[in-house]
Amino acid sequence: MDIKETVVTFITTHLKGRKLKNQYDASLLEEGIIDSVAVIEMVTFLEETFGIQIEDEEIIPDNLDSVNKIEAYVNKKLKEK
Fold this sequence. Notes:
There is one protein chain. By secondary structure, the chain is mostly helical. It has one domain: Orthogonal Bundle (Non-ribosomal Peptide Synthetase Peptidyl Carrier Protein, Chain A), CATH 1.10.1200. Helix content is 56%, strand content 0%. Helix 1 packs across helix 4. The protein starts with a helix and ends with a helix. 15% of the residues are buried.
C-alpha cells in the first residue's frame, strides 16, 4: 500500500475535496487544506487504515502537517509495530 497515495486520496475525497497540487511539503494547515476538526478525522483514518495507534501527544505539526510528514510518521509507526 502506497502511504502517500492513500493519504492524498483521503484528503482530496474526504476533507473538503481540496486538491493538493502535488505540493507534498506544503503545510496542510497553513494552506487551509485541513483544519483542527479534519486533523482528528485524519488521525482516525490513519489508525484504521494502517493499523497504528496515534497517541495524543503525537498529534503535532511535526507529524501531521504535510503529506510528506504524514508518510514519514506512518512509516515510523509501522516499523515500531
